[in-house]
Amino acid sequence: MNNKDAPIGIFDSGVGGLTVMKEIEEILPYESLIYLGDTARTPYGTRSQERIKKLSFRNILFLEQFKVKLVVVACNTSSAVALDYLRENFSIPIIGVIEPGVRLAVERTKNMRIGVIGTEATINAGAYQKAILNANPEIKVFAKACPLFVPLVEEGFTNGKIPELAAETYLAEFRQNNIDTLLLGCTHYPILIEPIRKIMGESVDIINSAQAVAEETQKFLKKNSMLGKNHTPYKIFYVTDAPERFRRIGERFLKKRLDDIRLVEI
Which residues pair with 118 in a beta bridge? Predict the structure, then answer.
């Protein structure tokens, strides 16, 4: 906690959290980052709540060995199911992806009708719905699980008829419910922004919580005098399986080469 130049730890069940890492890197260029993708056990979204808690706990144990000053849970499923549990069991500061995105959505909605999409576990946990209603009980929330979106992204189907058909299938009811704000409750979903926007139309405000998470991280570090000043910050990626697949998909996410990817057992 006293070492400002200690790295920030980030974990996700796979590659989706790279959308969060990208935003953090952009607004905090002097921070070193250690990313853990639990690719051997992805996706978390179809697992039981107890299993998700155990996997998330183990991920933070792994990151702690690097003396990280902060952990970002860049996984909506872990944030929805395990965040309180993790904060109870670790003294290290932990930031999830739900609260920042919810704050932004609540600020942006004009007609008080918000849609939320995510994995089955995220939607079933109800964390987004509860957080929105806690912020403003007058808001009407419509939530929908979109289980095909993650495999579409990971297989590279991010544009064209296939993702558009999936988006139409999942999102048509949101148009009928006249939402004006759609919160992307999964870190993979920003990669599908074009087909999602095509189906929802330009009038709907689409909230990518990754940017809000990065701003929340910056705010926390500044408030606690923990901003790093590394002029040669490092980025290390750890995965629990299939590093070449992670590289291929990750480079598509970040639009740059990923060099330091290490395979680990945790």
Answer: 145
- Give the Cα separation of 33 and 49 in Å (integer): 28
147 touches 158 (CB < 8 A): no
CA distance 195 to 193: 6
Q: Is 146 a catalytic residue?
A: no
Residues 5-19 pLDDT 10s: 999 999 999 898 999
Q: Which of 111, 109, 49, 116 is nearest to 83 (CA)?
A: 49
d(CA 213, CA 187): 11
pTM here is: 0.88
Q: Residues 26, 254: contact at Cβ < 8 Å?
A: no
**Paired sense of beta strands 8-12 and 205-208, if any:** unpaired
Q: Pick the catalytic residue: 186, 191, 196, 212? A: 186
Question: How many of the other CB atoms lie within 10 Å of CB of 233?
Answer: 17
**Please, which residues bridge with residue 116 across strands?**
143, 183
Torsion of CA 51, 215, 185, 139, to 10 degrees: 120
Do residues 97 and 24 lie in contact, with contact meaning Cβ atoms separated by under 8 Å? no
- Exactly one of 75, 104, 106, 192 is catalytic; which is it? 75
